[in-house]
Structure to design on (67 residues):
């Protein structure tokens, strides 16, 4: 799942990030159906997930002048 960066109403910037879920037993990616069922369709084990999060850096423009 990929979440795009955005600027909140209060001016805060939320970075772009990606989240990947995988089965802790066999390492296969987990899709929405497997997540809901609680069972890995690849190895048949009860789904005990592992989550990986990748954060993309967002530059913030300088506010004001530079010296």
């Amino acid at each position: 799942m990929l979440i795009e960066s955005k600027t909140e109403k209060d001016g805060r910037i939320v970075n772009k990030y990606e989240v990947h879920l995988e089965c802790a037993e066999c390492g296969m990616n987990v899709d929405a159906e497997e997540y809901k069922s609680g069972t890995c369709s690849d190895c048949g084990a009860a789904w005990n997930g592992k989550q990986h999060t990748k954060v993309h850096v967002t530059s913030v423009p300088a506010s004001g002048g530079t010296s």
User: Anything to note?
Assistant: The mean pLDDT is 80. Residues 32-37 form the longest helix (6 residues). Residues 2-55 form one domain.
